[in-house]
Every structure is written in C-alpha cells, then in structure tokens.
Amino acid sequence: MTLPRIxxxxxxxxxxxxxxxxxxxxxxxxxxxxRAVVYTExxxxxxxxxxxxxxxxxxxxxxxxxxxxxxxxxxxxxxEILVLDDRGRADFQGLQSRMGLARSPALAARRxxxxxxxxxxxxxxxxxxxxxxxxxxxxRRRELEALDLAxxxxxxxxxxxxxxxxxxxxxxxxxxxxxxxxxxxxxxxPGVRSRAWIKIRHxxxxxxxxxxxLPGRGRxxxxxxxxxxxxxxxxxxxxxxxxxxxxxSEGERADLARLLAAAATGVCPFTPAPKAPGAxxxxxxxxxxxxxxxxxxxxxxxxPSWLRLRPDLAPEESSADLPAGTEPPPGx
Length: 332
Fold this sequence. Notes:
Elements lengths: L9 E4 L11 E6 L3 E7 L6 E4 L15 H4 L5 E9 L8 H5 L8 H10 L2 E11 L2 E2 L5 H10 L7 E2 L4 E2 L2 H10 L4 E6 L9 E9 L2 E12 L8 E9 L5 E7 L5 H13 L17 E13 L12 E5 L23
C-alpha cells in the first residue's frame, strides 16, 4: 500500500467559541512541541514527517516500535512530538536538543537515551485504505481512539466535548501552553489554517529593562528591528532574558528609535554579555511590558511580544523570575 502524503491542518489564533455553541466543540491541550505526521504501511515500518514534509524518522528512533504496535493497520496519523520534563509537561528547550538530527542517527540515538521523545496523537487522516479527510472530527476521533495507541513513547490524550471555560482554566492552572478548540463537524483540511480549529495560547505579562537593540532590515532599515531585554536578579545584576521584535506600530517603532538613540552607550549592561552580533547597547533606564508564553529553563522568554513602555516604573522594579540555580546563557 502506498499512503498519500498529507500536510497537517493548522489552527487559527482566537478565543473560546460562544457559550451557546460550547457543546459543538471538542477541546484538546495545546502542546509545545514539533508537529509531525506519521505514516505506517501496516508492515511494521514507520515514517515520521515534519510539518514541512521533511523525513525526520531517524531523529526519533524511540518512536519506531509504534509501527509494530499498529499491527496490520495502515494509517496516516497527526500528532506532536514532545520532550517531557520531570513533571510530565512539554519542555521545548529539551526538544531542541532532539530536533535537526535526522542526518545524525548515532547522535539521535544517544540523545534519545537522555531526553526521550513522546508522540502525542490527536487525529487520523487515512486508515486501512480509507481516506478520512471528509469525515467529521468526531468520527475521526472515534477511529483514532479505537486504535488504542498508548505506549512508552506515545499516547492519545483525551479530548473533552464542551466545558471550554473549565478546560481553558485547567490548562492555565497546570502551567500548560494553552488549548485547541476543534469543531465536532469539521473536516480535515490539509495544509489549511482553518477557523474550524482555534488555538488559544496562555500569555503572561512581565516588565523588562531594555539594554540594547538590533538594527532592522528591509523596510525597517534605520529603525530597531528588535530590542534586547533584561531583568534584575537578586544581586541587582541585569540578566539577559531574550529579544523582542514584534508589537510596535510604525510610529511607535520610530519613537522607540529616538529613545534608544538618546540612551546610547558603548558598555554592555548585561551580566554576562549576550551573544548578539551587531547589537547597540543603551543605558538600562527604559522599562517596557511584554507578553510571553513560557520561559526556558535558563529564564529566556519564549514568543515575546511588546505591549508598551512603562515610564511609571524604575528599572530596579523589574526583577527576573529565573529558575533556581540557573545561570542565564550568554545569548538567545
């Protein structure tokens, strides 16, 4: 059997469906990992492809037994590859050590022993010669659950129908990335970012001190493309927590450029200095508020977006919430 190549369906950022439509939707935990489409021909073999279509099978050797676990079933499955921390939550920093190793199987095998991957399955698009693309999500979900795929490195977490407010609150309470809302009657739309799937990411607002900036390119030439952010640690040292390059209007970016020019200095204010080629340093007196999804174990902000300047705050009022015993790395 030759299985069809299927691009993964994508979710659109948004909000919870209206309460009156709550029972028409299923809710799944949003996972912070690498999207993957899994192909098994029913002969025990397994192929894993990234969202781009790249074959990444060799990067995750621990997933190979999933092929035999499916028995004689030929299937195309949709899921997310994670690396879990000691609390069982997705650790994207850990996953980064596993990504990009498809051409280094020996190294992938060594990394699998120290940071094993876990495949979360949430859809099936083709099964035993049948295309399920035109079937509603609720039907596909029943087909997926009937496969009973639970193993040492893969699982099929439950989806909840209705109770969207409670599901969203629980993901926030447990420190998870967010929620994906899927309409029960939705077909699978390969490669489409569809309104039938809605993703909601929990974002946290924090205050940061601006310690430098990177020049913009293209239409942003002459303006800051990104600013370098820091927060004070318990000793008062400014620790680098990442860069942010989104969230400004054209006028706001121009205003920011003037403020940065007035604060220019030749001394890097961060301890230790980040690896930021081409950076322009500034006296750390500008405070801003950004939103971010999570922090890495080293304290860097993930997926930050600029909200506003905070002229009402002194730089000393921005303190870092760094993991205990962690030294922030010298760079992003």
